[in-house]
Amino acid sequence: MAVQTIPARIRWAVDVLDVQPDDQVLEIGCGAGAAAELICSRLQSGRLLAIDRSESGVDRTKRRCAEHIAAGRLTVRHIDLATLRVPVKRLDRAFAFNVNLFWVRDCAAEVALLHERISPGGACYLFYEATPPEQVPTVLEKASAALVEGGFRVSVVESKAPAVVGLIARR
């Protein structure tokens, strides 16, 4: 299998997550599995549940991260956040990269699920590529409002090199 590169924007986002070896993590929209690969390499007793509404995204993540699945660090499911039943009582981190759910429609049920499952001291991270740049204020405003309405405290973080902006929502 050919070595797959991991884009700088994904590396930056995973660094911001600061995953610890025993963390329970939820990835919303795993796509090609680049973030899952990085996160699983940092886990020891922790686990990552990666979900995607796209069957092809799930298949790509499963192929890319087969060794992590075999080791028990990763579970990949074809499901959306609205219908997910989180298999662990508490999550340390949940994150999404370029998932428009949080700013294009009502997502109160999904935010409530995250608020219920993220442990005190844990956080939800939403990352967006800043393209087109004129859309960034709208994305930040709408996603922040949804998270605040769901009981989170929100802060914004921006990358220096890749044009990525992130929201960190803490319980």
From TrEMBL:
The lineage of its organism: Bacteria, Bacillati, Actinomycetota, Actinomycetes, Propionibacteriales. GO terms for biological process: methylation. This is Class I SAM-dependent methyltransferase. GO terms for molecular function: methyltransferase activity. Keywords: Methyltransferase, Transferase. It comes from the Bacteria. Residues 25-122 form the Methyltransferase domain.
